[in-house]
Amino acid sequence: MIYPDKIGRHHTQAILNVEQEKYYNLVWYARSDKKSQCNRESRAKIESLYPALTKQLCSKEEGEWAHGFNSGMLACLRVMNGGKGLTHESIEEFPCLDS
């Protein structure tokens, strides 16, 4: 486990950025139209980056749960990654996460 107090704020921010992009991509993937020609290239890229997670999203047994988890992670990361970390302002703005 990585502890933010031992790795520094800059590195912590980089981790938050990477994770936010990951969950943004997974939420987009779940919401995107599989049949659309326009989405085919983007979906293939996300599938190559996260093969196990996209397979889980397509699963009849786990897909809805996985999408809910990914959406929750994206919301949490957006609250924490407002540039200042978790602040009183980010908590007040919580319902408005631009997704």
Q: List how many beta strands DSSP finds.
A: 0
Oligomer: single chain
- SSE run: HHHHHH
Name the shape in a single word.
globular
Please give the largest β-sheet.
none
Structure characteristics:
mainly alpha
Task: Summarize, please.
By secondary structure, the protein is mainly alpha-helical.
Topology of helices and strands:
Elements: H1 4-7, H2 9-31, H3 40-49, H4 51-58, H5 63-80, H6 88-92
Helix pairs in contact: 2-5, 3-4, 4-5
Question: Can you tell me about this structure?
Answer:
By secondary structure, the chain is mainly alpha-helical. The chain has one domain. 69% of the residues lie in helices and 0% in strands. It is built from 6 helices and no strands. α2 packs antiparallel against α5 and α3 crosses α4 (51-58). The longest helix is centred in the first third of the chain and has 23 residues, at 9-31. 11% of the residues are buried.
